[in-house]
Design goal:
- Helices cover 59% and strands 11% of the residues.
- The protein is α+β, with helices and mostly antiparallel strands.
- The protein has a five-stranded antiparallel beta sheet, sandwiched between helices.
- Helix 1 runs antiparallel to helix 2, helix 7 packs across helix 8 and helix 7 crosses helix 9.
- The protein is rod-shaped, with a radius of gyration of 36 Å.
- The C terminus is likely disordered.
Length: 331
Amino acid sequence: MAAERLAEALRLLQDGQGSPAVAVAGAAALEVDGVAVSLGNEPGRTEVLWCSDDVSRGFEDLQLTLGQGPGPDCMVGGTTVRVPDLARVRHDRWPELVMEAPGLAARAVFCFPLRMGGIGLGVLTAVRRAPGPLTSGQSADAAILAAALTRYFLEGAGRARQEADPVNPRGPMNPPASLPFLHHAAVHQATGMVSVQLAVSLADALLRLRAHAYGSGRTVTDVSHDVVATIAILQRRTLAHAEAERDQLQYALNSRIIVEQAKGILAERWNMSLDLAFATLRSFARARQHKISHLARLITEGGFDTDVIAHGVKETNRAEPGGPVAGRETS
């Protein structure tokens, strides 16, 4: 039965149907509770592509949060790391992980390198809810699956390069048209956001995310999702505020333009200076509690008799001797 399940996982890879279904089939073939498939992007770090269940996903999140565990060791050393019982690991091996072990759903972890000669590509991680070693048959099947995954990713990388630059596949290439789903995409996004907010390097930003996650008893993935969501909300609010301010600025600008146009109309029509034209307009508006911009708009649109303004100002100035335009208006 296990052989048939392994054959199903290998068939999916051979058909080029790499997906989380491979991890599910792999978990069934190895008779474990969960399987995760990761690719390495630099020494000591991997990017999770496929997880078969919450147990494997949770353990991968914890390793990313702590920056330590059997997965990173497997990636760096290029050798299989077997942990039949996480509760019996020496404290000095993975100090933070050992402290978290009692509360983990995963109790046994087995990591197999995806490796071709001296080239490390990633890690195949199998987890169990109960402690105990793999049988020799399960270990052999895991090695077969790891080798198949290595070939699959190497061939896929070759195809992506060829599709990106069919003329010169070994030269500079454009990004592939389609990229695999990254389980920790939010972590990378949050890292970039935090680096900008705090003006620190990306490496330092990731360390701060990890420290915050560990200090709050959460995974760095959960914290990163909160960071991305919170900043997105703040950005939307900032954008809405900026748009409101822009509209207010545009309204003020338009009003100022209309007032200046009205000053020109009055100055030319009454043969007076622009300053005196504005003073006349302002006095009339104040006397009748009108907004200058509204009155100016009526004048520019030709819907207001400007002689009324001059006449009204004359009456106001007679009532208030010494007014700004007393005895100076012409009609």
